[in-house]
Amino acid sequence: MSGHIPPGWPEQVHPPGGERFADTALAWLLELVPPEYRRYGVLRRYPLTLARLARQHVEANVQAAREGFRTARADLAGKVPPHGIEALLETYRTEGARLAALAEAVRLVEDALLAEAFPGDPERRHRSAPRP
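Request: output the structure for the sequence above.
Response:
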């Protein structure tokens, strides 16, 4: 993955294989997780661990937005005027799309970090590869 920037790559992160890739990936990933995560040294020492947590965090937000969208009408009927519910649904649509793109960007960075961690072992370079 050296130097290649796939579509959806976050602009804040230098290209994989570059000198500043890991540093910029770490800084970007830290912005995506709750601030409390900064206190755990393992996440800075091993950026792949942070990428895993960030991926799970963002994916959970995607699922929460989908659930919120599915249940908003029923949960808020009679409590919020219809135009308020429609505005909320539009917010879910907008944020859902943003979060889905963010989740993909995190997956791309995580895959690049995996490729750097296991350059000669294609079986271990991908999240979906079977574990030995």
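The longest helix spans residues 82-117.
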